[in-house]
DNA sequence: TACGCCTGTACGTGATAACGTACGCGCGTA
DNA sequence: TACGCGCGTACGTTATCACGTACAGGCGTA
């Protein structure tokens, strides 16, 4: 049992005890309600053993909960906030293009949101760039201000402020700003087929 | 193992196999990712055994999920039917809230982008609303202007202009604008994970 | 003060989870 | 056609879950 697993098992155990006591039940009371023995419940509450999913489901039921609800009480990750000042700045490898990633770099992240700024005449890349996204990725871009041209798989698509485009991100693509003003757009990249 | 428990164990097993195959992984591939043996994974997927919480947590992690998310994919209530007479009239179903969907309503769309506007004091829904997204859905919201409070699964999260939040969209949630000014935010909803 | 009851935990035992090894099958290629 | 590889599952063994029984401690009451 690794440290992380141990923490998880112990956390749910403490939670079960807290909920049982809040309901004014003894170990034997809860045992009767959920069909799990009292000594087993004691071991679970003290973090001494990891119950099977089947037993854990019955314990949760005895507490008038679904198992997913019980687990959620001690999980992190259901809500993740990135404050305005915490955004990750992307490296500026191309002159006139800067971007920042707005979403957290977490495994549970299934869509990455980023904002790009293009100076007049600048582009996010070039025609020869290889695809930067895994197979099956899709991208949606929303032009917030200015004018942007999407080059995707050899074709050019002109986009005005407010326009929204979705395309296969695993094809060679880049954006450019024909000017005359600065252009900004939001990019939403969804994980490839392997991930969804 | 009672009938109900057997159904639950078998259900999650089928779900694990569906997700693993959708990710293009073999049993040995997933075994490496999550630190559970391949024969054990095979037994779990075939419903032959009930894994402990500790092992189930590791299996979920190998699928880039928290265990509660994995469980929710097969919980009752996953099928949501909106009867014709119950259809929510867009765009303004709640006073002071209006929104527009920015992405095209196409089958291949894996992230739906929408912009919401909330007048001071208005909300996108209420505490009693059922979850409107399928199990496994995730949502990202970027506050463009004003101040928004996300209520998700009973907890309130305060968001200022420029803040970005990602959360489990299959949990009961709604946004509200405490005022004093108008608030706008972009919403990105990623498709759920169900494969059957 | 002593007894009975309730409570949580220790312990022994049987059942089963979990692993490592090996097998069978199918497919691709030389 | 034969061989090697990848894949999923069978099987034996070990570790641990899960239970039943019993113990220890505390509390209330006669």
The gross shape of chain A turns out to be: rod-shaped
Total number of beta strands of chain A:
10
Question: Helical region count of chain A?
Answer: 5
Largest sheet of chain A: 6 strands, antiparallel
The greatest inter-chain interface is formed by: A-B, 53 and 60 residues
Oligomer: homodimer
CATH structural fold name of the largest domain in chain A: Jelly Rolls
Give the name of the CATH architecture of the largest domain in chain A.
Sandwich
N-to-C terminal Cα separation of chain A, in Å?
Answer: 30 Å
CATH top level label of the largest domain in chain A: Mainly Beta
The SSE order of chain A reads HHHHHEEEEEEEEEE
Instruction: Give the spatial strand order of the biggest sheet of chain A.
Output: 2-3-4-10-5-8
Approximately how much beta-strand content do the residues of chain A carry?
25-35%
Summarize the model shown.
Two copies of one chain form a homodimer. Chain A has 196 residues and is an alpha+beta fold.
